[in-house]
Design brief:
The protein is an alpha/beta fold. 37% of the residues lie in helices and 25% in strands. Strands 2, 3, 4, 5, 10, 14, 15 and 16 form an eight-stranded mixed sheet that branches. Strands 1, 6, 7, 8 and 9 form a five-stranded antiparallel sheet that branches. Helix 4 crosses helix 5. The longest helix has 19 residues. The termini are far apart.
């Protein structure tokens, strides 16, 4: 075991000067030895956070149902490729495949692939899924080109490394990570990349004076890459986030950077690098805008509760009825299902964006309850 990540970062700063928050976040989450996602992080009750597939298997089954409907919209092709990006423990893939197993036609057509950068998670996925799926390193793989099907992710984009910026007197400045008396500190300076300014210009946002917020340039290159790889089909993105009007408003003057440990929100994201999860809310306006440049049409935008109810209201009702008993296990399973759809828990904070390419404007079940939010 080498030096702690904090010491490595301090050495880097002392040698070359302050680093962007994006570089700090990238190292804190993905450093090959010390990164949060590389060191055996636990997800769920024993870890720092939950994801929807850990809450209830019905989440993955309803994703599977939506994928099946997409396959039908596309005319039931002999091969329907579903690429999941960042599959964690593999629970979502397991539950999607369990659903597909009940429909021999869809199962025969389904070509399930996972793009996973983490060797640890890939190993866990293989234990969970065996030979039911195939794995790719990135979209550079030839098997990730000319896709006909759906490329989807759940809680992936919020973990991309973001730049932090602030507006002062009509000027956009970048917030860097520096050092003071052995501590990691924040310092404002000139932009490291002109694309930070161009980002706001392209989505038509005038930042409120004094705001401190984030720009996810990695998201831009990510959706552009997906648009190039998708020949025909859908992109399904589920994540924490807002439209740009909400995200870059006076109600969020401090931005959305969050740091979690043991399910507790921590105050300073610079502390204990590599020991905590760090996230930032997704700008779904930016995601849709740069997707459209690449040929992805917005088909619908809603929250997770309305999406799941649209896809499987009867399945949810049946599952809740099945768990109507008063014993503790039934109560917990019923509460888990409600957590996925209730606006006070996971139903409203998580948003769902569906984009399409070469499929027209089908009335997918997941967006039939969309509330007409503007992007």
């Amino acid at each position: 075991m080498g030096k702690p990540l904090k010491d490595l970062l301090l050495e880097r700063i002392r040698a070359s000067g302050p680093i962007t928050f994006a570089e700090f976040m990238q190292q804190a989450l993905y450093h090959p030895e010390h990164g949060y996602y590389q060191r055996g992080v636990e997800i769920g009750k024993a870890g720092d956070f939950y994801t929807s597939p850990h809450v209830s298997a019905i989440f993955g089954r309803l994703i599977g149902k939506q994928l099946r409907e997409m396959w039908e919209v596309m005319g039931r092709p002999e091969r329907f490729t579903a690429i999941e990006m960042g599959a964690g423990y593999g629970f979502l893939a397991r539950d999607v495949l369990d659903y597909a197993d009940e429909d021999t036609g869809f199962l025969a057509a389904l070509d399930y692939r996972i793009i996973e950068a983490s060797e640890r998670f890939r190993s866990l996925q293989k234990e969970q899924l065996g030979s039911c799926v195939s794995w790719l390193d990135s979209f550079d793989d030839s098997a990730a080109q000319n896709i006909e099907g759906c490329i989807f992710s759940n809680e992936l984009v919020d973990s991309f490394a973001v730049h932090r910026v602030t507006e002062k007197g009509g000027q956009l400045l970048e917030i860097y990570v520096g050092e003071e008396n052995g501590r990691l500190t924040e310092n404002a300076g000139e932009l490291s990349d002109i694309e930070l300014l161009q980002y706001f210009q392209q989505i038509g946002i005038q930042l409120p004076q004094g705001i401190r917020t984030e720009v996810n340039l990695e998201m831009v290159s990510w959706i552009e890459m997906i648009a190039r790889s998708l020949k025909r089909g859908f992109v399904l993105t589920i994540d924490y986030g807002f439209s740009s009007d909400e995200l870059y408003s006076e109600s969020r003057m401090g931005g959305t950077i969050r740091s979690y440990k043991d399910h507790q929100l921590m105050q300073n994201p610079l502390e204990e690098p590599g020991e905590r999860d760090i996230t930032a809310h997704v700008d779904f306006t930016g995601l849709s805008h740069f997707g459209q440049i690449g040929g992805l049409e917005v088909l619908g935008y809603t929250d997770q509760g309305h999406f799941l109810m649209g896809v499987g209201e009867s399945e949810i009702a049946e599952a809740l009825d099945k768990e109507s008993g008063a014993d503790l296990k039934a109560v917990k399973r019923r509460a888990a299902i409600m957590n996925l759809i209730h606006p006070a828990t996971m139903g409203a904070p998580f948003k769902v964006l569906i984009q399409g390419k070469g499929v027209g404007r089908p009335e997918l079940s997941g967006i039939k309850n969309a509330r007409g939010w503007k992007l």
